[in-house]
């Protein structure tokens, strides 16, 4: 960029035109949440819906169905979310090795924002989300999204609400890659299973 602008006198550079669509179509809040759920499912995330009072039971049920005996917990996660889960809680610690994190069965986090049009969950390293690596190493990630407060329609709307100085992790479904023959392999550089709980 410096090279491209090297011969432009200060103050004479052309401002970037930002007249692109901020949202594709008009939707109600309910339609935006439905779009998020559809796009998450398209990316092979498993979507669950509940209310705040039923959330602890839902989280406990998901962990039990997975057969999890250990769950990684960010320091600022709402204790009530795991109130019904009877298993060993592993704290998010700076000294944890990748091998130790890989041995954990599941991780439960909140999120910073969820983008409906792309089916993307964004984590920003806040205390209820923990360090970036805890969402990348364990094989099973349960992510709680508060609906509708944390749901936006588009990426431009998400960027307005996110702090670019924070460590942003953008998650669209479970970790996956394909080889040249398009054989899909999941769990290569992140969780093999992503479960998203939409909580009203």
UniProtKB/TrEMBL annotation:
<dbReference type="InterPro" id="IPR003741">
    <property type="entry name" value="LUD_dom"/>
</dbReference>
<dbReference type="InterPro" id="IPR037171">
    <property type="entry name" value="NagB/RpiA_transferase-like"/>
</dbReference>
<dbReference type="InterPro" id="IPR024185">
    <property type="entry name" value="FTHF_cligase-like_sf"/>
</dbReference>
<dbReference type="Pfam" id="PF02589">
    <property type="entry name" value="LUD_dom"/>
</dbReference>
<protein>
    <recommendedName>
        <fullName>LUD domain-containing protein</fullName>
    </recommendedName>
</protein>
<feature type="domain" description="LUD">
    <location>
        <begin position="90"/>
        <end position="199"/>
    </location>
</feature>
């Amino acid at each position: 960029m410096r090279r491209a602008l090297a011969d432009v006198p200060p103050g004479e550079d052309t401002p970037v035109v930002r007249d692109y669509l901020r949202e594709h179509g008009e939707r109600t809040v309910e339609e935006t949440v439905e779009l998020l759920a559809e796009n998450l499912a398209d990316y092979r995330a498993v979507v669950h819906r509940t209310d705040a009072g039923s959330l602890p039971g839902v989280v406990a049920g998901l962990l039990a169905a997975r057969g999890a005996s250990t769950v990684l917990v960010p320091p600022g996660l709402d204790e009530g979310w795991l109130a019904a889960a009877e298993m060993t809680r592993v704290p998010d610690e700076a000294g944890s090795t990748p091998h130790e994190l890989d041995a954990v069965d599941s991780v439960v986090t909140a999120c910073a924002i969820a983008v409906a049009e792309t089916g993307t969950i964004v984590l920003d390293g806040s205390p209820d989300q923990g360090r970036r690596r805890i969402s990348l190493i364990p094989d099973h990630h349960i992510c709680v999204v508060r609906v509708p407060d944390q749901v936006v329609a588009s990426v431009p709307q998400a960027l307005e609400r996110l702090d670019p100085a924070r460590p942003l992790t953008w998650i669209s479904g479970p970790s996956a890659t394909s080889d040249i023959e398009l054989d899909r392999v999941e769990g290569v550089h992140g969780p093999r299973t992503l479960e998203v709980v939409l909580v009203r």
